Amino acid sequence: MLNLKKILLSVLLSFISIPFILPSQPANAVSSEISFIILTQYEKTVTISDEFYIIALTSTGKKPTWKSSDSKIASVNKYGKVTAKKAGTAVITASIKGAYASCLVTVNSPTVTLNQSHITLYRGQGAKLSAKVSSKVKPKWKTSKKSVATVDQNGNITAVKNGTAVITATVNGVSDICEVIVKKPVITLSAEELTIKAGSATSITANVSSGNSPIWSTSNSKIISINSKGQIKALKKGRAYVYAKEDGTKARCTIYVTE
Questions:
Q1: Helix (H, G, I), strand (E, B), or coil: what is residue 5?
Q2: Per the database record, which ranges form the BIG2 domain (predicted)?
């Protein structure tokens, strides 16, 4: 029995002493490539007419293909330049073989706010409007009545005659308005009646609230004459009126000419 145990132990030790040879991995084994794209931004909020670039880093180093889900809202060119066209949302996607990445673009309508909503002027006076616009686009200016007030493309207003006009600043269909009232002036003469002898001269003055000079005229040029400075000459006996007019307002003085 003892000899049998010794034999079994010898066999076991002989197996343990035999080295095990494991298969090794080949040195030229190739791991699978992973494709990816990294964008500089994945969400962007802009206003109509804004432009910006999305930069893409790709695993291949090659330029991706760009595409917009709705080019009517936001378009993109082959360089990743995005142009906002109208309000809404669009997804801009950059893709290569085996990978893609997207940026959600929200396009808002611009806001336009004028610095004044009401302006009162007299004929010949001017004012300047400024518009605060949320986009980089300059507003387009227009007036509802050029005969009352004009406006240039820098927002400069000029009062033409008494009345009311509406000045509008518009950016991509969004606008704000300012009401311009051109007031009639008040004219006060230095006299309501004058008596002078035929062949003599006198003068009359007018205080006009607008600061403009009035236009002088006479009702009867055979009795009196008057020039642009309000200087009156009596020509013959009688009664006549002199008028001072400015932008729809008229003041009158009665002139009596004696012999």
A1: helix
A2: 33-106, 108-181, 182-254
- Give yes or no on whether 37-108 and 112-182 have one common fold: yes
Domain at 37-108: CATH code: 2.60.40.1080
Fold of 112-182: Immunoglobulin-like (2.60.40)
Q: What angle do CA 12, 16, 17 make, to 5 degrees?
A: 120
CB neighbour class for 5 (10 Å; exposed up to 12, middle 13-18, buried from 19): exposed
Domain definitions of the chain by residue range: 37-108, 112-182, 187-257
Amino acid letter for position 110: P
* Radius of gyration in angstroms for the set of CA atoms belonging to the chain, rounded to a whole number: 45
Which of 167, 131, 161 minimizes the C-alpha distance to 148?
A: 161
Model confidence, pTM: 0.70
Which residues are registered as beta bridge partners of 132?
A: 113
CATH class of segment(s) 187-257: mainly beta
Angstrom CA distances, 84 to 11, 31, 76, 91, 92, stand at: 85, 42, 9, 12, 11
